[in-house]
């Protein structure tokens, strides 16, 4: 065939070679880790597919497990009101919002949801995003820029970190839940910045302890910054009626500038939200990239979340049940000498087991015994702080809790004695 002049010219140029994905060192590392656990005869506890709705129990591989690995804090994932609302919203709106809210994706159900969220916090307004993760990324990167300062708790969720990085702001952290350390950072840097954002979490996702909100508010008085609280694990959990960390401490919720939360946990849907002043919400609606350039929240998810918030109001007993169960778990675990770290027993209770391999082993043995709880290992937590993370729900029975604690303590005791020296196996 004939070859054009341009093609001839191109073919004589040196060609750049792009590595394939299989050649990437990052990929090789993932494969290495998988091989290592196979070599050690360890089953992979991650990505096991459940066959139904998971809450206090889960069905996996044809077996029913006592489940401590799902966010369904108040047992609403199969609540009749929630299912009914989801069905009604599907009938009315279909599944998708079919466009960005800015351009034809706005639905009446979005307003209903945002009103319900604002009502929870007593704020002027709220805005919802398609995921909790995206909410942090979109809101932080919208509000902060390269000339600004973000100071966050060292245990902040990865989504907050992603938001700060995208913003280009200077980033500092303070020691976990330590307002004295936050003050040290503020003292040395506050003068140099016009906008400062401080980020903390109502309940910390890996440790289960509660933010020192009164301490943060005292510093806010003096140093003047925006305070953002991530309520992913505390909505429905803290406070007598489950309104969150402000109710826990009895403080005025409007003294916090930015309430952030997710719809994927207590409200058993998917999505995230920011609640705050009218000005804050107006700004985010106009300028947050992850809102403007992403589809509106699926109406069915909005419908489910609205109904969940309704159940939370109508059945406060669920929050009490969750608290009783979490406190029971914590008390029994401590009695058996388990290291529950910083957990205050409201929703998340970790059992620390030091090294990652032991955490996986413990999780796998519990799985064999019919208890589903997942290990959290490096890089999600620092090496040496591997743990099992128990999510407690209002729907767990005392028997389930007692059995899980007993099995965990018994198996862990045996694993410690075996001292199989896995860490030194050369792979
Ligand atoms: N913030 C915190 C503290 C979280 O734990 C999570 C998720 N586990 C998120 C944000 C992100 O929320 P989602 O999973 O709903 O995207």
From TrEMBL:
Pfam families: Aminotran_1_2. Residues 1-16 are annotated as: Disordered. Keywords: Membrane, Transferase, Transmembrane, Transmembrane helix. Coiled coil: none annotated. One of its GO terms (molecular function) is transferase activity. The chain crosses the membrane at residues 291-314. Its cofactor is pyridoxal 5'-phosphate. Residues 67-406 form the Aminotransferase class I/classII large domain. PANTHER family: CLASS II AMINOTRANSFERASE/8-AMINO-7-OXONONANOATE SYNTHASE (PTHR13693), LD36009P (PTHR13693:SF3). This is 8-amino-7-oxononanoate synthase. It comes from Ciceribacter lividus.
